[in-house]
Every structure is written in C-alpha cells, then in structure tokens.
Amino acid sequence: MKYKIKEFLLRTIKTMIFPACILLLFGLLTKGQIFTGRMIMIILRQSVFPALIIMAMLPNLTLGMMDFSIGAVVTMSAITGGILMNTTGWGLPGLVLFSLLTAVILTTLTGLLNNVLRVPTLVLSLGLMLVYEALPSLIFRSTSGVAIIKVKYAALAQPPLVFIVFAIAFILFYIIINKTTYGNNIKALGGNEELARRAGLDVDKIKQIGFTISGIFAGAAAAIYMSNNGQVSPNAAFGSITTIMDAFLGLFLGMFLSNFCNISIGIVIAVVTMTAMTNGLVALGFDSTWRDIIKSVVLFILLAFSGNQPYFVRWRANLKRAEEANLAAEKAKTV
Amino acid sequence: MGKEIIFSAHGICKAFGPTRALIDVDFSIYRGEVHGLIGENGSGKSTFSSIAAGAQSLDSGTFTLKGQPYSPKNMVDAQNHGIGMIVQEQGTIGSISVASNIFTGRMKENSKFGFLSMKQLNEKAQIILNNIGAGDINASLLTSSLNFEDRKIVEIARVMVADPDVLIVDETTTALAMKGRKILYNLIEKFKSENKAVIFISHDLNELIEICDRVTVLRDGRIIDTLEGDNISEDNMRRLMVGRELDGHYFRNDYICSYDDEIVLEAKQITYGPFTNLDLQLHKGEILGITGLSECGMHELGKVLFGIEKTITGSVTIPAKNVEIKNPTIAIKNRIGYLSKDRDRESIILNASIKDNIELPCMDKLKGPLGFISTKSERKLAREQIEVLQIKCRNSEQLLTELSGGNKQKVVFSKWLACDSDVLILDCATRGIDVGVKAAIYRLLEDLKSKGKSVILISEELPEMIGMSDRMLIMQNGKITAEFKRSPELKEEDIIKYMI
User: Fold this and answer.
1) How far apart, in Å, are the Cα atoms of B81 and each of A90, B52, B75, B162, B163?
2) Domain match, B422 and B452 both
C-alpha cells in the first residue's frame, strides 16, 4: 500500500512537473495575469477545441496512422453544420447533429479508402485534405462555401455548454480507450500489427472503426469551431492544417506525459498547458509568428529532453558504477 | 488397450511458387505422446507445424483431430479446436499489459457489450501464469517492463489460454534460458500425464532424445523416417536429416590448444552490465570460448568488445595498432566482425537483398578510383560469398526474409568474411541452426583459425564450446570463474560447476 502511494505520488510529480514549470514561468513573466479567474476560464474554454482534435487524431495515431485530413474534415463539417442549421432552423442541436454526421461520413470514407487503396495513410490523407477543403465551395455554391451563423449560437463555445460538450467527449474517449475491447485492440494493433493479425484480430475492421470514431470527436470540434467563429470559410492549398496546429503541439506533449499518466488525462493537461502558454505569450505582446516559433522551440526542447532522458539516467548510473568499479580495483590492488 | 491417435495428417502438400515445401506428408501422434519433428532448415517442419496450427493454408491433403476432420481457418480457430503452437520468435506487444497480451484476439470472451473488466482479465491471466509455474510474473504489468526471458514465458501462457489438446513447440527452447526451459519441460510432462500430445521441433538432438517418444525426420518436404526407442540416436537423426553420413568429424578433431602469442584484442578492467573490472585477451589464431548461463554477462561482453555498448571503466583495444574500440565503426575499420544472438534484429536487414547485406560493412572495398561503387564489383562480391558459403538462394537479389534461418546465418558470416575480418565475435552462432549448417560453420571456424584469424565464440552449448575452443572462459554473475584449455579430458561436468 505504502509503495503504491509512493508510486502514485512519483507519477503525479513526473506528470505535473513540466506543465507546472510552464505555468509558473508564464505566471511570473505576466505578473500573475494568466492566473486571474477570467483568464483561467478563457484558457480552459480555449483548450476544449484542441483537446477534441487530439481525441480525433489519437485512435489512428495509436494504430500508426497520421491523418492530416482532420483539419479539413473539421472545416467542412463546421460549414455543413452551420449552413444546414440555418436551413432547417434546428438551432444548436442541428449544428451539433449535422457537424457530427458530416465528420463521421468523411472520416469513415477516409478509412474506407485507406483500407481499399492500401496507400500510406500520410499520402492518402494529404490528398483527401485537398478534396475536403474544396468540397464546401462545390456543394454550397450559393454562399461560396462560407457559413455564417447568428451571434446567439456562440453559446456552444461558451461556458457552461462548451464544458458539457467536452465532458461528454472526454468520458466517451476515456471509456473507448481504457474500458473497451476496442481500445485494447487498437493498443495491441499499434504495438505489433503482424502479431495482432495472427492472434485473430480483424485489422481492417479495427482501422475502419478507428476512423469512424475519430469522426465523432472531429464533429464535436467542428460544432465548437463554428459556434466560436460565427463565420467559417473554406480553406485551400493545405490551409486547413493551421486549424489543427495547436492541437499538434498538445498532442506531442500529451504523448510525452502519457509515459507517466493515462493518455486521456495527459492530453487534457497538455492542451491546457499549451493554451496557457499561448495566452501568456499574447499577454507578453508576442505576435502570432513569434508565438508559434516560441511554442515550437519549447516543444523541441521538451521532446529532446524526453527522448534523451534514458541517456541522462544511464549517464548518471554509469558515473556511480565507474566510481564503485574504481574503488573495487583499488581494493584488489591493495590485497 | 491400443493407442489412440489424437491428431493425424494425410497427404499434406504445400508449395511456395516453384518451391515444394511439403510433399505428401503423412504424420500421426498418439495421446500421451511427445513426438519430435526434425529436419534441416528448409526441410518443411515449420511449414507443416504452421499449417497444422492455422498460421498458413495447405494446398492439398487432410487433417484429422480427435477423430474429426480438421481444417483451421486461422490460429485462433486452431486454438479453439485444440491445437496451440509456441514459436521461436513470435514476440509480445510491449505497449499493452501482460494480461492483454495473453488474451489478445480473445477479448470478446472477456467483455460484456464491448466493455472490458481489466480486473477480471488480470485475475484470469494470473491463474494461467500460476498454472504454468510463472506466478512471479505480474499479469497487470506493462509487457515492456519484463525482461526477454519473461516475455517468452508470456508467449507460452498465451498459447495455454485455450487449453490445447495438442501443443506444438517450434524451436522454442533455443530462445529460452534455464527458467523458461524448466517451465516448458514441466508443461510437456503435464501434457503427457493428461493424455494430451506434444509435437516437439528442435535442433538440439540431445534434447530430442531426452524428451521424445518418437521422432519423425523431414527432408526436402518429404517424410524420411520415424524413429522409436533406441533408434532415436544422434547418429541416426543426423544421417537421416542430412541424407548422408556427415563427412569426417563434427567438431574439431584435434585436441591441441594452439594459437600465437600476439594479442589481437584486449579488454582491460572493463565494466558494463553484470561485469566489473573484467580482463580478457584474444590471441591470433585462437578460438576463445565464453560460456555460462544466459544472464551471466557473456552476451553483454560480446557487445562491449565490438563497441556497441560503451564500457564504463577500462578499455577494449587492439594492442598492436594502439587502437581503442569505442564504437562499431572503429571495430569494423579494424576488421572486427560481430554476430548477434538476436540475428534478425541486430545482424541483418531482413527487407534487404543478400547482396545489400553482404556489402554493407565493406563499401570501401567496392569503391572505384573516383570513389563510386561499382555495380559489377558489388555483384561479384555477393556471388563469391554465396558460392563460398553455399547459401541456398535464387540469386544475390533475393530478400533475406525469404531465406531459412541457416542461410540467413550464412549471410551474416559472408558479410564479415567479405571484408576480410581478422576477429570474429560470434554470439550464439549456431542457435536454431540444423546440424548440416552447424557442421559447415564449424569447418569454417577451423578454416579461419588455420588462416590466423581469431574467433570469440559465445555460447551456452557446452559440447560446442568443448569441441571448438582453444581456451574457454566460464562466466557466472558477471565474473570469470574458471578458465580451461583445450583437452580431450575436459567434460561438461567440469564446466557446469563453475557456471551455476
């Protein structure tokens, strides 16, 4: 029992040390600005969108597939959700429903093509990104693919609704990853595809479901995106990648944190940290270019540190070992 | 009461393109029997067992299991019917728990409406581990936190989930150290006592003699003979496997400890892993054997001597050149070659051709006057090595994934011979290799010795150590506990007491 408590505390410290340092640093630099109640609420609210994007990307990433088309799926779903909501007059439930449906259809199509064409997911998703980016302009010609919704529908991106959406998505994600046969199967498949195949797992089916599930979270993200922006225009020439850029940084940090805690918890801590950093940089007066550079540098340092951590540990252990060996050699000489 | 056949095969045929891997194979095994299946690499024994276990399909023929026609769709289907197989290099998935590994592909049976109870899964997995005598492995741990040996035991546990009636053990013991072997042997005994059956595939002839009731020999995809009782002898098995009497001797036939005084590789006060301040000298023309139990530190020693792992104290040097071996690049430049115990991961590139593998360490040799690699000389080098080592292949462009274990091993040897290595560090060079290739490797080592080359032979196989080494270092817990010189009087018992 004592050992378990000690281990739990150690893991918590390891999980929290980097986010705590970042928050503390920016807290000091902004003279506490990011720790005001209002700012904390803003940070938490802004964290929901990247967190949902990460949830959309993670099942496929665990299966060893990077789906770059998620940004385009989100934009297309947001536009479709917004326009169909206006057309049907179904309000926010309509926005959520149509965004979810569009995203699930698109990611399911991506999965289907992935299984049928057997080209690398990276290549396929880049190609599909261009197609999905072009779709809004082709389908909604009358608005040139632009969706505009009334200000009152911004409520979905504001507390408390935004946190309710997040809570539902998080619980769903946590259960899928940790408590279901499917979650276990994707971890097995991601660990060793050949072995999992030999063990009787239906690899294509698991991958297909992975894409469909990612659509659920991408759809939720799309509804929040539409609600938050009020107006969403189609992207072109890989422009949709910027939609998911913040999520990428959080994703890497989340994967690093998953060494010490559950990945579901890790991604939440990661996006909150990254959003706090972004807001801290805004408060310090950095423009978006410098913010991106600084965030990327911090992430590189973090990844370099995490990647080389075993070497640091070994180096320290070796120093101790060398000392002991030299002492033993001295002793042997004396004898 | 007559013996009851539990599993039989009738007229099994299997071809891979133009290669006929199995030709009209008839085979049967009784309840309560351990039936050995032997043959050279590429003889068809693994193909037969993998078809029986559902990993591959057959072209023609039929199986009968417990009196019923049997045609498995896949490995899980085979397990559900009562046939399980433990293979040499299947592996485990590090990113999931031990329990999840054991139940991979069987999660549905342990879930309700798609929801898993990890607690229940862990408990069930722990019971399986306890039953096979591996209760010290915690089922809830992440598999990547286990050592190599325990991960192999998890593989055994995975097969036992379906409680098979026929267990196929495909060259597994070579990958296991003492603990794993003990578990496997106990399991085999349990199968016998429960009136079940074991098909046992191994290249270790002594092990086969000790364990098997009958031994069937396969050669070039055909059943050659089935040996019983006193007929199961090393000589008979070797003769039937190879198809002729093995020429002359198997190991060295001299008992002279002969080598030059010149030291070609020296380790002084090196520390790494289990060993501390270890000294070692290798002489010109010497075959230096290093043996002990798997965890004694001998495998780590091989890696340090080649520069893969850095020594914490002391140094590994070539005294004549005053060169310190700090990494594999320096080692290769100074004509040192290394064959890893984990051949497929560390010594060859499986998805590259024979030619690409052979030329990898000797690119400098292939460079023309302007520094470009000549395709002609590439092909020539590969052709020469294929000829010298008699590698069975279509041509030098064939991928290594398509070669048998013995031929892959020959490619590793040819790689180092092609760059004219003066020192070869061989870690378990004959692991999982048939007697024919083994004999060829022993002749090669003799030939290298006669040319003044030096060899460090790391192995757990004592007959090989005694049969080939000029000098032998015995290791226990990272320490050299004894040194023996080549002698006709030297027996395994003399060595074992310094190992344990």
Assistant:
1) 55, 11, 10, 9, 10
2) yes
